[in-house]
Specification:
The complex is a heterodimer. By secondary structure, chain A is an alpha/beta fold. Chain A is about 30% helix and about 25% strand. The longest helix of chain A is centred in the last third of the chain and has 18 residues, at about 175-195. By secondary structure, chain B is α+β, with helices and mostly antiparallel strands. Chain B is about 55% helix and about 20% strand. The chains are: A alpha/beta, B alpha+beta. The complex binds adenosine-5'-triphosphate (ATP) and magnesium ion.
């Protein structure tokens, strides 16, 4: 089933002479149980795309349907609920709350869902155990390694049981071993829990995790292939600028 | 989640200290400046405001009580029949008296003479001596504030020269301030008459206590209808005139008022700036919360909790310091009056400022810029 359906999505920042055409008509479907890698050069529009899909940025035109619900044109006041019920974000910079312990970091996501008190504590502990941080419940983010921080962030994203997870460069700040651990986790979430996962990355160390690789270039999808059809090595070997782009209509 | 608000606040101790220092400083600055202004008002009006009288009969066109002109005491007899009056007495307030100091020079004083049995016009704040002593001929009470420094008076029984007449110190009051910084001297109405060489059948003022529950405006018109060439004012009307004359009319209060206004503005700016930057420091966290599905209401609740908690802590510290400063000042010549009205007003102002400036800051986060949450 389609988790995300993007049709002819356009995003223009600003207007007039200084307008930046970040997305120039993007079409993309993402399915349940799918781990999709979104590649593209810096400035190609990756963050813009997942921001719109995640309901934190409004599109200029086009459609974006999240699990059957059109979100383009929805009033701002309706979006928090859609994010809360559908989307889990994972950030390159982790974005943990430094004043809270790992357990409290997860609890705050549960609080947003209306789960509080002892129940929230227990659930947060379970989620952290699932990402392998059972021993670190009372630790503050400052005392964790990058990989551990990102795992807390994943536990936090999972607190809301989101069917869709959007990750922007989740492994960029990590060593390769930590990066693989994170990708193992995300892959498991896609394959065993049927979540749709979009990972924006430059990190060629993780390409082999992809079920599908989509390339965005200058605001347009330039390549969209199932990973089985392609040898991951070709993605790595060819610099993006020289890829021969079959134009998607 | 209230705990995020509180934990964020206490997580960075240095930031917290900076924030609190800013607000504490603003509270003290504003409290002290407004306290000085209130001290000015009190000094200019206490002689009327502290009186127990509901109404004052004054000579026409009086702008301030120290300037009253004599009128006949027959006015008193014309109104004694009026039902709404519980008590009416003659009263004297004059800044025209001179006391000779031991070095032979003269010092101007403000002389208050009142019916000591009625207790409407003085003396107040008696710290030594009794009203009975004050009834004796020549007896005076001197306020401690300037007794020693300006008049060289230190103890009961001291004999001084007041308007070329012998006067004997029978007691002391404390903390009665006069706008002109003259020492306040209290005595009986009769003594004051003779110190001022007034005719025995004349008075400067008549003070009136109304019967409990009587409408003062009605009583005022009833009295005015029976009298000519005098004015009848309620105590607050006369206090207002006093204040306007001394504080505004002489220009002396304007500088204090301007300083107080500046203090409020500076205080507001500091509080706004401190809270604003404390909020902006955490803007990425608020953006993250927003991305996690928090509503604007949820964010506002966190921000406002933080603002109120910092505001409260800083206010308690600031106002405590201000109250100590105020207490100390009352021993000296510059009164800084921090009363409960001022405390309440500053409380409301502080909390509003804290909430207001944090809400302005949070607007940045409620319209999330993806770049803010996604940057590495
Ligand atoms: N708030 C904004 N205002 C104006 N232009 C913007 C804004 N955000 C992004 N852009 C522009 O839109 C284009 C796409 O930006 P986007 O951040 O989506 O790229 P990206 O693919 O995520 O790049 P990177 O790999 O560097 O993160 C860029 O040209 C960028 O400069
Ligand atoms: Mg980006």
């Amino acid at each position: 089933m389609k988790a995300i359906e993007v049709v002819n999505l356009v995003k223009t920042y600003g207007a007039g002479e200084t307008a930046v055409h970040a997305l120039k008509g993007v079409d993309l479907d993402v399915f349940e149980s799918e781990l999709l890698l979104l590649l593209g050069a810096s400035g190609s529009g990756k963050t813009t795309l997942i921001s719109i899909v995640g309901g934190i940025l409004s599109a200029t035109s086009g459609n974006c349907v999240i699990r059957g619900r059109e979100i383009v044109g929805l009033p701002q006041s309706k979006l928090p609920k859609i994010r809360l019920e559908n989307i889990g974000f994972i950030f390159q910079g982790f974005n943990l709350f430094p004043a809270l312990t790992t357990q409290e970091n997860v609890e705050i996501a549960l609080d947003l869902k209306g789960v509080r008190g002892g129940k929230a504590k227990k659930r947060a502990a379970e989620l952290l155990e699932r990402v392998g941080l059972k021993e670190k419940l009372k630790t503050f983010p400052a005392d964790l390694s990058g990989g551990q921080k990102q795992r807390v962030a994943i536990a936090r994203a999972l607190a809301g049981e989101p069917p869709i997870i959007l990750a922007d460069e989740p492994t960029a700040a990590l060593d390769s071993e930590s990066g693989r651990l994170i990708m193992d986790l995300l892959q498991e979430l896609a394959h065993e829990q049927n979540r749709a996962i979009v990972v924006v990355t430059h990190d060629n160390r993780i390409f082999d995790y992809a079920d599908r690789i989509v390339k965005i270039e200058d605001g347009r999808i330039s390549k969209d292939e199932s990973n089985e059809q392609t040898d991951a090595a070709t993605w790595m070997a060819v610099p993006s600028a020289s890829v021969n782009i079959p134009q998607t209509a | 989640m209230a705990s995020l608000a509180i934990k964020n606040l206490f997580h960075e101790k240095v930031r917290l200290v900076v924030t609190l220092t800013g607000i504490v400083f603003s509270v003290i600055l504003t409290a002290v400046q407004l306290g000085i202004f209130q001290g000015f008002i009190a000094a200019s009006t206490d002689i009327v405001g502290k009186s127990n009288a509901d109404l004052w009969i004054v000579s026409q066109n009086v702008t301030h009580v120290e300037q009253g002109v004599e009128f006949s005491e027959s006015n008193l007899y014309k109104i004694v029949e009026i039902k709404g009056i519980e008590r009416a007495e003659k009263q004297i307030v004059s800044l025209g008296a001179q006391m000779k100091k031991s070095d032979g020079s003269d010092e101007g004083i403000t002389l208050v003479g009142s019916d000591l049995d009625g207790g409407m016009g003085g003396a107040w704040n008696i710290v030594e001596g009794s009203l009975e002593d004050l009834k004796k001929p020549d007896a005076i009470f001197v306020d401690k504030l300037y007794a020693e420094s300006k008049l060289g008076i230190t103890k009961i029984g001291q004999v001084v020269e007041l308007n070329k007449r012998r006067a004997r110190v029978a007691g002391f009051t404390k903390g009665i301030r006069i706008f002109t910084s003259q020492p306040a001297v209290f005595t009986s109405f009769k003594n004051a008459q003779s110190f001022l060489n007034m005719r025995e059948d004349e008075t400067l003022y008549i003070v009136i206590k109304a019967v409990e529950g009587k409408n003062l405006d009605e009583l005022k018109s009833e009295i005015a209808a029976k009298l000519e060439n005098v004015e009848v004012l309620t105590r607050s009307e006369l206090v207002y005139r006093q204040g306007i004359y001394w504080v505004i009319g002489t220009g002396a209060g304007i500088t204090v008022l301007v300083a107080a206004a500046l203090a409020i503005i500076v205080g507001i700016v500091i509080v706004a700036q401190t809270i604003y930057s404390a909020t902006v420091d955490h803007i990425r966290e608020y953006g993250t919360l927003k991305a996690m599905g928090a509503t604007n209401f949820y964010l506002y609740r966190i921000i406002i909790t933080q603002a109120i908690v910092s505001g409260l802590i800083a206010f308690v510290i600031g106002i405590s310091v201000s109250l100590v400063i105020s207490r100390i000042s009352l021993e000296g010549t510059l009164a800084i009056i921090v009363n409960w009205q001022l405390v309440l007003a500053l409380f409301v102002l502080t909390i509003l400022m804290c909430c207001g400036s944090s809400v302005v800051a949070i607007r940045k986060a409620t319209t999330i810029d993806p770049a803010m949450v996604f940057k590495g």
